[in-house]
Write a structure and sequence with these properties.
Elements: E1 2-3, E2 22-34, E3 41-49, E4 59-60, E5 63-65, H1 72-84, E6 90-97, E7 107-115, H2 118-128, E8 135-139, H3 150-164, H4 181-192, H5 198-206, E9 211-218, E10 225-230
Length: about 250
């Protein structure tokens, strides 16, 4: 747990413990899950049921306190592993939430968002033989009332995801290494919450230079569909001049 030591009302004066500003790290993890009895998929995320006050019994985003010895990225990975057992390969800092009244004590949360493929989640649950206790997956667009300001945080993360899918290869974080164009369109439709014209979608993605066709096909009840992979030279997220120390 990280605390400031200066009272903002009197610069340079040590603050009482009750006046300390604490720093927490939370993460919004998105994945896709197929609806029971339907061909449709939806964006879902894991929440953790709180076992102590404040907001005991309510669902909240996974997270924890920032340790004085670790960086923000490391704290996000650690708290995710401790609360959910999950280890996303894509993790990006989302925003800092620090409204004065968001918690009974003064807390600033550094929020990350992550993407996971469905098979990665299944592998974790298989290793533990069961789902992590106090963790449940929810439809990201139909959440109950969450603890603190976590509904607002999820809404912002969804907004970021929907905007980012239009200009980056962020959808790759929800796909297998090789996929059909129908698989890719399904991801876009789940994120955007609307149907896309297959012909227009194919034309747009094939002209984007982000996909590389393979010589393999998926066979089944329909005609064979070519498998594609993403151009690995294009990053999931452009961090600009920032490096891993952040």
């Amino acid at each position: 747990m990280t605390r400031t030591t200066l009272d903002p009302r009197s610069p340079g004066t040590p603050a009482a413990d009750t006046d300390a500003i604490r720093v927490a790290v939370s993460t919004v993890i998105f994945t896709l899950r197929r609806l029971s009895g339907s061909d449709a998929v939806q964006v879902v995320l894991p929440l953790v049921r709180r076992t102590r006050d404040p907001h005991e019994g309510q669902w909240a985003l996974p997270g924890g306190w920032l340790d004085v010895t670790e960086g923000l990225d490391a704290a996000a990975s650690r708290t995710l592993a401790e609360t959910t057992g999950l280890a996303p390969t894509y993790l990006e800092q989302l925003y800092a939430f620090g409204a004065v009244d968001r918690s009974p004590t003064r807390v600033v949360s550094i929020v990350y968002w992550a993407l996971l493929r469905a098979d990665e989640i299944g592998a974790v649950e298989a290793e533990t033989d069961h789902a992590i206790e106090n963790v449940r997956w929810f439809d990201a667009t139909a959440l109950p009332e969450l603890a603190f300001d976590h509904n607002e945080i999820v809404d912002y993360a969804l907004w970021r995801l929907r905007n980012k899918v239009g200009y980056s290869r962020i959808a790759h974080g929800l796909l297998a290494d090789e996929f059909t164009l129908a698989d890719l369109r399904e991801v876009y439709e789940a994120i955007l919450g609307r149907r896309l014209d297959p012909a227009n979608f194919r034309r747009q993605v094939e002209n984007s230079d982000t996909l590389i066709p393979t010589d393999r096909f998926r066979t089944g009840s329909h005609r064979p569909a070519r498998l594609y992979r993403y151009n690995q030279d294009v990053e999931l997220a452009d961090r600009g001049p920032l490096d891993a120390r952040h």
